[in-house]
Amino acid sequence: MLANFDFSVITGSLSYLFLDGMRFTLTLTALAAIGGIALGTLIAMMRLSGLPVIPLVAKTYVNLFRSLPLVLVIFWFYFLVPYLGQWVTGADRPMTVGAFTSSLVTFTLFEAAYFSEIMRAGIQSIPKGQAAAAQALGMTYWTSMRTVILPQVFRNMTPILLTQTIVLFQDTSLVYVLSITDFLGAASKVAQRDGRLVEMYLFAAVVYFAVCFVASLAVRRLQKKIAIIR
Amino acid sequence: MNYNWNWGIFFESSPEGTGTYADMLLSGLAWTIVTALCSWVIAFLLGSLIGVLRTLPNRAANAVGTTYVELFRNIPLLVQMFLWYFVLPEVLPESWGSWLKQLPNAPFYTAVVCLGFFTASRVAEQVRAGIQSLPRGQKMAGTALGLTVAQTYRHVLLPNAYRIILPPLTSEFLNNLKNTSVALTIGLLELTARARAMQEFSFQVFEAFTAATVLYVLINIVVIFISSWIERRVAIPGNR
């Protein structure tokens, strides 16, 4: 029962939970979001390009990642990244890759599939006339994308991109399957060390809830603020 | 890449002694599908209820619905899984707790309940969006015909709303199916867990994961196929 709820387990491990665990979680979230949005934008542009084959490649990438569970993808890359590293650097044995690098690669590539769908919707929502007008002004594809289309897309899509980042923040807890010390991993290690599962998991839930709830309220306010009245 | 490929591994018998590695993966696939279907029943019924609550002209009902959705959406699924599996039996009265712990197949029941409640919050959002996307006149017409609120929902609003939200519901179903893999952390022997076990027993990492990948992609294709069949089947003639 909750009668013997022991707060001292939580207070005693706060620095481990936040300085080790939460710092890992937040760093991973931020870097994977930036990488994912950059790569996702590129994939969205590939998918909407009129070139041969390339849209198909982008579509296959997105559909493949979207049909796999994240846990499986985490395992895939945990074993694959050392070989990829070997292939890229031309070394003669699989590279030793740290937990952080491995999960960063995983989350960037995985979330890029989801971010690319958001960016694709954003690019498609810009009237075609704008791209045509930019072309008529003599702009190249890249100039018109950079100066005309994408700035509007990012403005319109910021709330959705941020909401997806909140989902990403929650998803990073799955690195638990690799026994990495993210926030949940730290909580779980303390829980098992002290035999205090109830306190630690409830505390983890409260912290995740607080962060995500406040962040989603902030996104909603931002959405109202930056909405363009059409 | 200096990796020893061995695609014949699937036909070698697994150290569990219950068949080949292929059998092991297929039993994982079966658990994945059964867990996904059972939890979807909870998710669909509870999600519809919560979604309806959020659209009723009643403050208390709205508050209950909103609280539910915010609570279940803002906690990572893995944490929810741990709460159901490790925390719930401890905070319940002693006798209930020990009953829960002794339940055979506890990971399966826990995963079903956890995924059901988690996915319900997502289904609820879709149902709400579907109901709100209907013209206001439909509800009014229901009232004008003398239908009660419950009858209006049952015969007018929900049948239309479900047809509209069928595509997003399909992707929620697929998300739910993929989320069953999170239950490997509490010991459910579903597809990803079995692929991982195969990798540990046989050291054939990439064969095991490739097989799991192919199976997941296949289920996705089948589900999308079934969903578009349902969509054609339930389409209202002359509508579009």
TrEMBL record, chain A:
GO terms for biological process: amino acid transport. The chain crosses the membrane at residues 24-46, 67-85, 97-115, 160-180, 200-219. InterPro entries: AA_ABC_transptr_permease_3TM, ArtM/GltK/GlnP/TcyL/YhdX-like, MetI-like, MetI-like_sf. It is found in: Cell inner membrane; Cell membrane. GO terms for cellular component: ATP-binding cassette (ABC) transporter complex. Pfam families: BPD_transp_1. Belongs to the binding-protein-dependent transport system permease family. HisMQ subfamily. This is Glutamate/aspartate import permease protein GltK.
TrEMBL record, chain B:
Keywords: Cell membrane, Membrane, Transmembrane, Transmembrane helix, Transport. It comes from Methylobacterium gossipiicola. It is a multi-pass membrane protein. Gene3D superfamilies: MetI-like. One of its GO terms (molecular function) is transmembrane transporter activity. GO terms for biological process: amino acid transport. It is found in: Cell inner membrane; Cell membrane. This is L-glutamate ABC transporter membrane protein /L-aspartate ABC transporter membrane protein. Residues 29-227 form the ABC transmembrane type-1 domain. The chain crosses the membrane at residues 29-53, 65-86, 205-230. PANTHER family: GLUTAMATE_ASPARTATE IMPORT PERMEASE PROTEIN GLTJ, MEMBRANE COMPONENT OF AMINO ACID ABC TRANSPORTER. GO terms for cellular component: ATP-binding cassette (ABC) transporter complex. Pfam families: BPD_transp_1 (PF00528). Belongs to the binding-protein-dependent transport system permease family. HisMQ subfamily.
